[in-house]
Design goal:
The chain is α+β, with helices and mostly antiparallel strands and about 250 residues long. Helix content is about 40%, strand content about 20%.
Length: about 250
């Protein structure tokens, strides 16, 4: 009995030591030269930018919005206990493929539209650094008529794309660092919401006139607009779920 307890104690010790000795996410990422270089080049600038925006530290939660028509990514941040996000910075798409509308199959060149989160941090990307999105999501799978929806959609460096969002090596150094800091501070899922455009009431009228023959696409955009309007009002993204028909539900 004593021997068994001793063995259990030793196993518990090593398991506990293993768990608590694992480096933090930031420390793991800084093992890679490109990430270390990004910190050397950009950390001071970003800390000052956050301070000017009233955010205590880079170790804050973030929210990213993408607009395909305007070809920009907006980065918003908040202190952990804040109820609203503050706009921090914009990044331009430096290249673009496809057209307005969601991605529905492999090879269509489309940038997705919908509600995603960062699920991969790639510090040795072929495109310098990259942040992967969880495309296809549940809505994409339900609404697509195709068996192969494609995948590997990233926000990345360089300036070429077949459905991803490139923002140059210089700017991905900043955004990658911002996202690493958010995850390291405890933000499990960094939301990335991608819209066809800034779908204001005026813009949705324009889209309805231009795409008047595509009711399915217009209904999809009206669904996305609910989340756009919610954030414009509350400066906090809604909780997102998907019903059995593939429609997004917001709370």
């Amino acid at each position: 009995m004593h021997v068994r307890l001793h063995i259990i104690f030793i196993l518990f010790f090593f398991i506990t030591a293993s768990v608590f000795s694992q480096p933090g996410f930031k420390k793991q990422q800084k093992q890679y030269k490109r990430v270390r270089d990004a910190y050397t080049e950009k950390e001071k600038y970003l800390k000052q930018l956050y301070k000017e925006k009233g955010i205590d530290t880079l170790s804050s939660y973030i929210y990213i919005r993408g607009f395909k028509h305007e070809r920009i990514l907006e980065v918003w941040a908040k202190n952990k206990n804040d109820t609203a996000y503050t706009h921090i910075i914009n990044y331009d798409f430096c290249s673009f493929s496809g057209k307005l509308g969601p991605k529905r199959k492999q090879g269509d060149m489309q940038v997705p539209e919908g509600f995603y989160y960062i699920d991969r941090y790639n510090p040795y990307s072929s495109f310098h650094l990259s942040l992967g999105l969880n495309y296809p999501n549940r809505s994409d799978r339900i609404l697509s008529k195709f068996s192969n929806l494609g995948g590997d959609i990233f926000i990345h460096g360089a300036c070429c794309t077949i459905g991803c969002i490139p923002i140059t090596d210089d700017k991905i150094n900043e955004l990658f660092l911002i996202a690493v800091e958010a995850k390291n501070s405890g933000q499990v899922k960094v939301p990335v919401h991608i819209f066809p455009a800034k779908i204001t009431d005026e813009q949705i009228k324009y889209l309805k006139s231009k795409y008047s023959e595509d009711n399915i696409l217009l209904q999809f955009w009206e669904n996305l607009k609910e989340a756009y309007d919610y954030f414009e009002k509350h400066k906090n993204p809604p909780a997102v779920s998907v019903d059995s028909q593939g429609k997004y539900i917001f709370k």
